[in-house]
Amino acid sequence: MSNPGEAPALLYTEDEDELRTTVRKFLADRASWQAVLAFTEADPLIHQSTHPSPRRDDKVWRGLVEVGVPGLAVPESLGGAGASWREVAVVAEELGRAVAPTPFLGSTVLATAALLGVHAVGEADVAGTLGELAAGTQTAALAVPVSTAPSEGPFGTVTVAADGTLGGTVTSVADAATAAVLIVPAAGDAGPGLYLVAAADARVEPFLTLDLTRGLANVTLEGAPARLLAAGEPAAAALSGALVTGAAVLASEQLGVAERCLELTVEHLRSRYQFGRPLGSFQGLKHRLADLWVAIAQARATARYAADRVAEQDEDAAVAAAVAQAHGSPVAVRAAEECVQMHGGLGFTWEHPAHLYLKRARSDALALGTADRHRSHLGELVDLPPG
């Protein structure tokens, strides 16, 4: 923890650099863009199968489990690695660079953050569930629409019956199709609450989305047995904290997408020639790349600050996450669009990875709140008058 008044350390630590090297090497081996493309092409949802794929590459996920990724943010006393959300954000960068199909956002980030929030207030014993998530023996999903922003409190779509069971539908839940348990916000007579539901007790229906590397599903609960984790203000705080953490970590994923798109574009412009000159020597293209590089450098600063503030459980975390999303989300989209355009006709082909990054950037721009929604919420957080 940093001392009060001390400037946050935005540079990567030696441990973070080692973690990055390990994860990048692993993903290069098991999640090359060719492998990711092949995985998406095999998705039964595309072929209208009656048995849709869960859209998780198990060999990639097992490797991340071996590295200890799912338990990075979980304390050692609960079976985790005892690291922090800074390390989780480093992994998010690498997963963004690889656009790897994993339940990382839904389970390792959103669900884990919600359970850690519940554990912090001590309303329910979630040590066992956290230990299982940290060990990678099962995954979980936070049952909120993936578009939910931290400023929102989605407690209205699921209700609690008199017998304590849950009923209702939640649309577009990230990584629900692979989850063993669901953490469900629900509203009852006693107010809002967070509940733990076995995925087997819900109807989880995956559907085809723009980004085939991140599965979404609609979750329907009909008299589903549930265990209350937190109620009232602690439940709202745990949910809000999970969404803020998710937005902060997602900014690092978007940073990874943008960085890789810039690298691919520079490599292409250096190797391709027109009129006897490298494409990269043309002034107009150089200026566009320089402007993009500056924007990505700024996105890195905002993403790192957001990850650090979340890791420190700082009161500025919500502001930092909103800033990171307001700036970094459009940068990732811009980098992916430039990648497609500057590759010319090649960038529009299925056999080039540019479309994978554009789809991830576009879908991430909608996840956990759009840039405009974060800007609006930022104004509220810092007491700026509207207009």
Briefly characterize the structure.
The chain has 387 residues and is an alpha+beta fold. 50% of the residues lie in helices and 14% in strands. It has helices at 14-30, 33-41, 58-67, 85-98, 104-121, 127-135, 233-271, 283-311, 317-342, 354-366, 371-381; strands at residues 140-142, 158-160, 166-174, 181-188, 191-198, 203-207, 216-224, 227-231, 273-274, 277-278.
Keywords for this entry:
alpha+beta, about 375 residues, 11 helices, four-stranded antiparallel β-sheet, 3 domains, Butyryl-CoA Dehydrogenase, subunit A, domain 2, four-stranded mixed β-sheet, Butyryl-CoA Dehydrogenase, subunit A, domain 3, globular, Butyryl-Coa Dehydrogenase, subunit A, domain 1
What does this structure look like?
This protein has 387 residues and is of the alpha+beta class. It folds into 3 domains: 14-138, Acyl-CoA dehydrogenase/oxidase, N-terminal domain (Butyryl-Coa Dehydrogenase, subunit A, domain 1, Orthogonal Bundle), CATH 1.10.540.10; 141-232, Butyryl-CoA Dehydrogenase, subunit A, domain 2 (Beta Barrel), CATH 2.40.110; 236-381, Butyryl-CoA Dehydrogenase, subunit A, domain 3, CATH 1.20.140.10. The chain has helices at residues 14-30, 33-41, 58-67, 85-98, 104-121, 127-135, 233-271, 283-311, 317-342, 354-366, 371-381, and strands at residues 140-142, 158-160, 166-174, 181-188, 191-198, 203-207, 216-224, 227-231, 273-274, 277-278. The strands form 3 sheets. The protein has a 4-stranded mixed beta sheet with strand order 1-4-5-8. Strand 6 and strand 7 form a beta hairpin. The longest helix has 39 residues, at 233-271.
